[in-house]
Structure formats: structure tokens, C-alpha cells
Amino acid sequence: MAGNAINCPMMRNHFHVPETYFLSHSVGCLPKVSPNAFQATFFGPWVSGENWALWMEALELFRLGVARLLGVNPSTICPQSNVSSALTKILFSLPKPGDRDVILLSKEDFPTIGFVAKQAESLGYQLQFIDEHPSDFQNWEDAITDRVAFVLVTHALSNTSHILPVGQICAKARAVGAVSVVDVAQSLGAVPVDLAGWDADFVIGTGVKFLCFGPGACFLHVSSRILPKCEPLDVGWFSHENPFEMDIEQFRYAGDAMRFFGGTPSPAAYVLANSAIGLWAEIGLSGVHRRIQDHLSTLHTYLPDTATTSPVAAKKRGATLVLRPEYGDKIRAALEVANIKFDQRKQGYRFSVHGYTSADEIAQLGEIFARLKR
Q1: Domains (ranges, CATH) in the chain?
Q2: What is the pTM of this model?
Q3: What string of DSSP letters covers 196-247?
Q4: Digit-coded pLDDT (tens) for 112-123
């Protein structure tokens, strides 16, 4: 990824950022280049009649861009419409491995992960949840046995922003012969991801949050180690080795990750995402990661030590500060008067920061937090 050609504090100039916006964990802000780029690369081909030829080029460009962000070969990337669909395709692409009948996951995962995994019970699997907090590797160490077929692990938890020890978990999964699937939906663009170090079998994610792709531009990464074993059930002509062969009686899986693709795509989401990918190539994500953690560290100086559900230590957290409910309730009225944009889960009040979050906004939110010390 390119270095910081755009100074990180100046990032705000390149995005449409609502004032006091602390919701990038939900939807990242719109890059200013995106509307015109979308007009040219989605509507332009439609108007000119060169539609599918150019739209498919844009789809391939998306694969290349995501591969660069992840540091992997583009042949291992398959575009997806959402994370749920990606996980469904994975779980139903591999034969049940004999007596291995456990899908291991955490109750702290985003609910859609559990919803999808539950459907695999029709294949003879059963769900097993990590009993204690998933940020402690020992809880995974004890649970990953030779009965486990799939290990589903979230890099950054949505509800509490804890970073999980993904590398250790994947290594233990490999050691017992289990398949590892890592969800980077809440981490990619916010904190470094290390696919080479993790060596996971699959990685799934979305760019709607900290990468500011817009909705619908998701992806699936599959390792070359496990790809030959995968025979997805959800296929279409773009899953074919040669989509334009047009022989209804001859289906052969694509030789790369595109076997997970399916039928005719909707190119709009990927066309839109490409403009954001280009912008990140100019900005560089390493500076964004540092700025996010600097912002969070500053916010913590305004808070009592016990105020957050999310971790205080920078290396243990994503991009979201989660204020415990009993603390958030005390300042909710002040947050609403100041038009601070946040959301709430049972674990607490969630405030995410980004490279485009201004120092003034941090100070404004911090002054409200400071009331909790008085």
C-alpha cells in the first residue's frame, strides 16, 4: 500500500463527513470522488452500450484492489454481496469430515455469523460457543479439539471492539485439522490485518465500514491450500471455469476463488468501491490506523478508568470506544444536545473514530465525557 501522499489530518477534505459523526463502525463516510466516478464507470458504460464488457473490467479491478489491501494474490479473492452469503457458501462447500461435527464460534460474534452457522446443522454439525471471553486465547486453546470442523473467529468484535488473537487461534485450528474462517468486517481499514501471519483458510469481510466502499461490496478470500477441496452449492454461470462456454450439461468449477461467485452480478457496488480503493492507495492506511488509535487514546484521558467496555490498551482494541451503559446513561442528554452521532447496544454506547474525525470533534466529545469525572 502506498505511503501517506495525503496528510492524515487533511483526510476530511476528501470525504463527506457529517458533523460529530462517530458511526463509521456502521457506515463509513462517502468519499468525495465516488459520485462522479460512479457516474462515469457505472452509468457511462450503460449509456454507451459497452455495459458488461466495462462492468466486468470494474469487477476484476475490485478483486485486484481488495487483494492489494489484504496483501494476497487476486486469484484468492471472490467478490460477495454480504458477509452472511460468503459464510454460507463456505460452510456448504466442504464435505462433512467424518466424526468432526462441531462448528466453534463465540456469542460475541455478530449475530449473522451464528444465524448462518445454525443452518449447517442440516448437514449434521452442531454449534459450540466459547464459554468465556473470546479475547483470551486459552478459551480457544481448550475448545479446539479434534471434533471441531470449523473455527469461526472475528478479528474485532462489533459490540466491544476487542481484538482477538487470530493468529494463535488459526494456528491451533491448523494443528488439529480444523478449517478456520476469519471475519474482518469490523477491523479492515481500522487496524492492521495480517493474512500472511494468520494463514487462515478463509477470510470474509466488507468495505462498507472503515473502507468507505458503500454497501454490497464484500469479499471472500480462500487459501490455495483448501481451494481444491471446495465445491460450493450456490453456483451460477460466473462460478464456471469458462462462463461463456454456454453448455448447460457441462459445469466445471472455476480454478480460482471465483468458484464461490454465483450468477449474474450486480456491478454497481463494486464500481462504487473502486473509487474508494483508489483513494486509499493515495492516502495509505498505516497513517489512518495510527490516527484512529491516537484519537481513542485522547478520548480515554477524559474518562474514568472503569468507564468502558472496550479495551483501553491500543493493541487490544479496534476503532470503537464502547462506554458502559451506566456511564452513557448519565451523559445521554448532553450527547443528544450536541448532536453526537453514536449508537447503543446492550454492551454500551458505541463511538467509532476514523482518520477523517477531526481533533475538534474529539475535544467536543471529550468534554462531554469529562463530566463523568466530576
Answers
A1: 8-32+284-373 (3.90.1150.10), 34-280 (3.40.640.10)
A2: 0.94
A3: HHH--SEEEEESSSTT---TT-EEEEE-TTTGGG---SS--GGGBSSTT---
A4: 999 999 999 999
